[in-house]
Amino acid sequence: MTEDKRDKRHQPRWPMRVLRAVAVAVLLDTLVQAALAGLFVTGDLNLLTWHAANASVLSTLTVLETVAALVVWRRLAAPGWPAAASAALVALVSVQQGLGEARMLAGHMPLGMAIFGCATALAYWALTHRTGTARQAGQSVAGVAE
Questions:
Q1: What is the C-alpha to C-alpha distance for residues 46 and 5, in angstroms, rounded to an integer?
Q2: Which of 72, 77, 90, 75 is nearest to 16 (CA)?
Q3: Res. 41 pLDDT band, cuts 50 70 90
Q4: Do residues 86 and 62 touch, judged by C-beta distance below 8 A?
Q5: Which of 2, 25, 84, 120 has the smallest set of CB atoms within 10 Å of its CB?
């Protein structure tokens, strides 16, 4: 057995587990943000304070997701697009916070839906991606290039 094959089989699993947990937390917190916004719009003005506070939580979670995606990309040789998408999500959430604080709802609401879509895509990828499988890099199950 070659050194490369042994390395793939014995890769640490913690980076992917951390990314999965953080990606799900980002997705759930994005849903909480939407619920708080919806309840605020229906007339519960106190929830605006909760919505603003939770924006900071979401911002922190997206930074953690980016760090986790970078570790998965570099240590597990996973695709780089989730790290780039996570970094873009950090920027989107920052812009979203600014629009919300400025009460520019015409941009704030659609951007919130885009953030939810991006968070969903990242969580889906994190939960379905498998690292170190036999079919990566164009190899068959027997390890022979196809």
A1: 57
A2: 72
A3: confident
A4: yes
A5: 2
Kindly list the distances between the CA atom of residue 134 and the CA atoms of 42, 64, 88, 96, 141, in Å, as whole numbers in the listed order.
52, 29, 31, 41, 5
pTM for the predicted model, two decimal places = 0.81
Closest by CA position to 86, among listed 14, 34, 128, 27: 27
Nearest to 18 by CA among 88, 86, 69, 77: 69
Dist. CA 86–CA 20, nearest whole Å: 13
Question: Residue 18's CB: how many other CB atoms inside 10 A?
Answer: 18
Residues 6+ apart with CB under 8 A from 42: none
- Cβ distance 128 to 19 under 8 Å? no
Average pLDDT rounded to a whole number, residues 127-145: 57
Contact between 71 and 78 (Cβ < 8 Å) = no
For the chain, give the mean pLDDT. 86
pLDDT of the residue at 144: 40
One-letter-per-residue 3-state SS of 69-84: HHHHHHHHCCCCHHHH
Q: Which residue has the tokens 């699993």?
A: 13
Rg (CA), the chain: 19
